[in-house]
Design goal:
- The protein has 24 helices and nine strands.
- The relative contact order is 0.11.
- 49% of the residues lie in helices and 8% in strands.
- Strand 5, helix 11 and strand 6 form a beta-alpha-beta unit.
- The protein has 544 residues and is α/β, with parallel strands linked by helices.
- The strands form three sheets. It has a five-stranded parallel sheet, sandwiched between helices. A two-stranded antiparallel sheet has the order 3-4.
């Protein structure tokens, strides 16, 4: 007789849905083509953009594990940025609409340059700092500009080897002292009333600020240490990271968390992106910045960057997964997890029921109900495994029952992913409850009209964005076409991933993950015959 087949246990899962809580990340990491781009020292793409659960953090964590001596991780939460943005002087300048980009860029360059130098030379004391400076000064003794750049570092005395937040606070203190001095000078000539600005006596206007005064503060902001910091970038390339064995990755993640005042977060991130662009000229350095798709869309580089958007987008890696990628990723996790509970299986398909005519292949069925992200796939399989405990393999009933819980959680996750950009978006989702599987244009229009009427509900929190996307509807004339009336709101629910479009075949819909620009083309909308809610959310919205 053959050995009795082991049954599924409650301890058998395919790992955690988030990188920081994923016990299988080390032993079952799937090295996709995107990871090859991230880890490549030649590929210039450095802005890792993807939706929640697309594997950005997992990829960066894996890079750190594979290159422990060559990776520097910088967390925005450790830079005292909330402290800085709450300073009265910074808030005052912001209220005057002073462009603070030069100041933010100075901060980012300072942090990155010092962290790289500390890592390269193990600077952890005053003696280590002086040893480093002496070594570099000897190398650049004939280059006056580079010597001047090194003088900038020497100004930071004991702070150089301390934590980044202490150095950031010091550079900010010097800046606010200059703002205070200007404020005090204004107060003395009697043109303004004395108040506290940056911790000392400053001023507030007793009458409308003149353009001349605003210009004076703008000059202070612009008069930063950027020139010497830019020279330090040359020192970094020529003297510090001048050999392949010194290659260094700098990883910046978690920019989607509440680490700073939302009203200036986008300015800070844009300035970080510009800093990374400037550091591209350091040959043996790669700065990797991970950012969620919705935040990247909000950056609007062209607003202050003077045509910089194309340059940034050329360096973006959009994290995307195929069904084949996800299947291989799941297989790797089964191979790593199954032996721990005595199961002799080496693929996810070995755990699933046999295909049938009604539902087809079970793995395809499940992946069709994901947004093609690792987190979705892992979550669905784990929901099924929890129901299959005690059986030798999963059944179609297990998959069907698991789908209800999985779908509800995915809809909540979709809300959480986009609620910062579109507050109250979950109330828009509810307008599609019990909708037809294939909606005609008229079906869709009725639900969009209902969503637009949320503006009249006192508890709706998305007044601002909903007003923007429905402006044409409320101010249109009789000749306004359907595209102008409904495309803006349709674009929102298409972009978040709730709705897909089909121009002919009712079984094939185009979603944002297939073609992000599909909804922008008038001809595509004009030829669309049916609209579909993504299958991931069918059970949650009672779409049968």
């Amino acid at each position: 007789m053959g050995a009795k087949r082991q049954r599924l246990r409650s301890t058998f899962t395919l790992g955690g849905e988030q990188a920081e809580a994923d016990a299988l990340l080390d032993n079952a990491f799937y090295e996709s083509d995107d990871f090859a781009v991230i880890s490549s020292r030649e590929d210039k793409r450095c802005f890792v953009v993807g939706r929640t659960g697309s594997g950005k953090s997992a990829a960066l964590k894996r890079l750190e594990e594979l290159n422990p001596d060559h990776v520097i991780r910088i967390s925005p939460e450790d830079l005292s940025l909330p402290y800085i943005t709450n300073l009265q002087a910074i808030r005052y300048l912001d209220s005057l609409e002073i462009n603070l980009d030069n100041f933010w860029t100075t901060l980012w360059k300072h942090v990155l340059l010092v962290e790289i130098i500390r890592h390269r030379y193990k600077v952890n004391s005053q003696a280590a700092k002086q040893s480093f400076l002496a070594e570099i000064r000897d190398k650049v003794r004939r280059d006056q500009a580079k010597r001047a750049a090194l003088d900038y570092l020497d100004e930071y005395e004991g702070r150089f080897w301390e934590e980044a937040d202490q150095r950031v606070r010091e550079i900010t203190q010097k800046f606010t002292e200059r703002i205070d001095a200007e404020a005090a000078a204004e107060a003395k000539i009697g043109s303004v009333a004395s108040v506290k600005v940056g911790g000392k006596e400053g001023f507030e206007t007793s009458s409308e600020f003149t353009e001349e005064r605003v210009d004076r503060f703008q000059r202070i902001v612009n008069d930063t240490q950027l020139a010497r910091l830019n020279k330090m970038i040359n020192v970094l390339d020529d003297e510090v990271l001048n050999r392949p064995q010194h290659f260094t990755y700098v990883v910046i993640d978690d920019l989607d968390r509440d680490w700073v005042d939302e009203r200036i977060a986008n300015d800070l991130i844009r300035c970080l992106f510009r800093t990374v662009i400037d550091l591209k000229r350091v040959r043996h350095l790669k700065v990797l910045v991970a950012l969620r798709t919705n935040i990247f869309q909000e950056l609007q580089f062209g607003r202050r960057g003077g045509g910089q958007e194309e340059k940034f987008r050329a360096l973006v890696l959009l994290m995307k997964w195929t069904k084949a990628d996800l299947a291989e990723m799941l297989d790797e996790r089964v191979k790593a997890s199954a032996p721990k509970v005595g199961l002799e299986v080496d693929s996810v398909s070995a755990l699933l029921p046999n295909p049938n005519k009604a539902r087809g292949n079970p793995l395809d069925y499940m992946l069709d109900r994901t947004l093609l992200r690792p987190r979705d796939a892992i979550s669905f399989v784990n929901e099924c495994l929890a129901l299959g405990v005690g059986s030798d393999r999963l059944s179609w009933s297990d998959i069907s029952f698991a789908e209800q819980s999985y779908s509800s959680k995915r809809l909540l996750a979709l809300r959480d992913e986009w609620k910062q950009t579109y507050p109250g978006i979950d109330q828009v989702f509810e307008k599609f409850r019990e909708c037809p599987i294939a909606m005609s244009r008229q079906d869709l229009q009725e639900r969009l009209d209902s969503a637009m009427l949320l503006l009249s509900e006192p508890k709706f929190t998305g007044i601002r964005w909903m007003t923007d996307v429905t402006d044409v509807m409320w101010n249109s004339g009789p000749e306004t076409q359907w595209f102008e009336l409904y495309q803006p709101l349709l674009k929102v629910i298409f972009t978040v991933g709730l709705i897909g479009c089909s121009r002919s075949d009712m079984r094939r819909a185009v979603f944002y993950s297939d073609d992000p620009l599909f909804i922008d083309q008038r001809s595509n909308i004009q030829t669309t015959r049916f609209y579909f809610v993504h299958r991931a959310f069918h059970r949650a919205l009672d779409i049968r």
